[in-house]
Amino acid sequence: MIANKRYWYHIIAIFTVIVWGTTFVSTKILIGYGLSPVEIFLYRFVLAYIGIWFFCPRTLFANSKKDELLCAAAGLTGGALYFVFENTALGITLASNVSLIVCTSPIFTALLTFLFYKKEPLRPRLITGSLVALVGMALVVFNGSFILQINPLGDMLTVLAALSWAFYGIILKQLNGRYSTLFITRKVFFYGIITMLPFSLMDSATFTPSLLINPVIASNLIFLGLIASLLCFIAWNSAVKELGVVQTSNYIYFVPLVTLLTSAIVIDEHITIVALFGSVFILLGVYVAENGFKLKFRPG
C-alpha cells in the first residue's frame, strides 16, 4: 500500500513538470503581447492565491515567528526571485534555453542539501555530473550569444532562477514536517506577492487591465494562475513532502524536453544543433549526478 502511494506521487511529480515545461512558452507569448515579467507573476499568483482560499483552512499564521519567516523566505525564493529571474530571461533569450538551464536545479538542490544537512558526502558522481551539466550550459549560452546573437544575460538570469528554486526546496524540507501542503502553498503565494511588490515599483511597464479582455492573454493567465500555479504548486509540494526534495527535483530533468517540443510547435522557435548537444550534456550531467554510471556488461 505504501509503495503504491509513493508511485502516485511520482506520477504527480511527472505531471507537474510536464505542465511547467509548457509555461515557458505561455509566458513568452504574454511577453510578446506586451506584459512585463512582473505583471505576469502578479496576475498568476493573485489568481492562485484567491483560488487556494476555497480549499485551504483559514489558519492565518505559522506556529512561530521563525516558521513565519521561513514561509516568507519560501515565497521570496520560490515566488518573486525565481519568476523575476525566469520571466526576465524569457524576454531576452529562447524559451528552450531557459528550460534547459533551469533543469540544473536538481544539482544545486543536492549541493545545498549537503551544505545544510551534511547527511551524505559529496559523491564523485555528483561532481562529475555537475561538470558535464556545466558543459551543456556553456553550449546553450554560447549558442545564444555567438550564433543567434542573443545577449547571454538571459542565460545567466536563468542560472539564478535555478539556484532560487533549489533554496525553495531546502526551505520546504524544513516546513513540511509541521504544516499541511495547502497551508505552505497558500503562504508561498501570499509572500510571493508581497515580496514582488518592490519589483513592481521598479518595473517600467504600466499595468493595463484592458489587455485582460484579449482571449489569448486571458487564457494564458488562467492557465498560469490556476493550473501551473495553484494546482501544480500544491502537487509539487505534496510530492516533495512524500518523496523528499532531492528525489522530486530529479523530475525537473524532463522540463527541457517538454519545452523544446512545445516551443517548436507553438511559437516556432528554431532549435539549433548546438542547443540540442547542450541539452544532451545537461540531461546526461544531471542523470550521472543522481545515478552515476550504471552500465553493466554481461560476458558473451
Question: What is the element layout, followed by pairings?
Answer:
Blueprint: H1 2-32, H2 37-52, H3 65-90, H4 95-102, H5 105-117, H6 124-147, H7 153-175, H8 181-202, H9 215-243, H10 245-249, H11 255-266, H12 273-291
Helix pairs in contact: 1-4, 1-9, 1-11, 2-3, 2-8, 2-9, 3-7, 3-8, 4-7, 4-11, 4-12, 5-7, 6-12, 8-9
Share of helix, binned = over 70%
Give the tally of structural domains.
1
Q: Can you tell me the residue ranges where pLDDT is under 50 for at least 5 consecutive residues?
A: 144-150, 295-300
Specify the structural class: mainly alpha
Strand-residue fraction? under 5%
Q: Which H/E pattern describes the elements?
A: HHHHHHHHHHHH
- Please describe the biggest sheet, giving its number of strands, its sense, and whether it closes into a barrel: none
Radius of gyration: 19 Å
How many DSSP-defined strands?
A: 0
Question: What is the end-to-end distance?
Answer: 40 Å
Q: What's the assembly state of these chains?
A: single chain
Q: Using the alpha-carbon principal axes, give the shape.
A: globular
Supply the number of helical segments. 12
Query: Whole-number average pLDDT?
Result: 80
Describe this structure in words.
With 300 residues, the protein is mainly alpha-helical. It has one domain. The protein is 76% helix and 0% strand. It has helices at residues 2-32, 37-52, 65-90, 95-102, 105-117, 124-147, 153-175, 181-202, 215-243, 245-249, 255-266, 273-291. The radius of gyration is 19 Å and the shape is globular. It starts with a helix and ends in a 9-residue tail after the last helix. 47% of the residues are buried.
